[in-house]
Amino acid sequence: MAMFEKVWENMFEGGSLWAGVINGGLAQVQDTVALTSGRMKADDYAVRSTRNVTTALGTMAGVEYGAVLGSAVLPGVGTIIGSIVGGIVGDQVGTFAGSQAGNMLFKRTRNYESPKQVKELTMSSSDASQTDEVSTVQ
Q1: pLDDT score of 69
Q2: Which stretches does UniProt call biased (Polar residues) (predicted)?
Q3: How distant, in Å, are the alpha carbons of 68, 114, 121 from that of 36?
């Protein structure tokens, strides 16, 4: 249990903090520009902001936990590789969780996008005009 407490403490200092701040911060700046230029609706901005925060936290946690696991397997090189892989996995998990939570909170719809689809939507500015539909089979 002490190992997890140490990871939690380290997550908010050093490299993992900056990885999360840069990752989530740049995405938030892009979304803010899209909102102020009229390319994004306010509810989409709220969803994206939620996603950006969870992506940053996921990246930070992934870097730290990846480093711990990598160090356990192969100290030195494993720490570096674990940090990179953990950061990528944490980013994907944070993106997915934030998109789901943001959609439930701000759009009141269910959105079953995969992390890859969420990243693709991030790259396009036309998703503000898309609607989410849930189909039912009777």
Answers
A1: 93
A2: 122-138
A3: 41, 27, 18
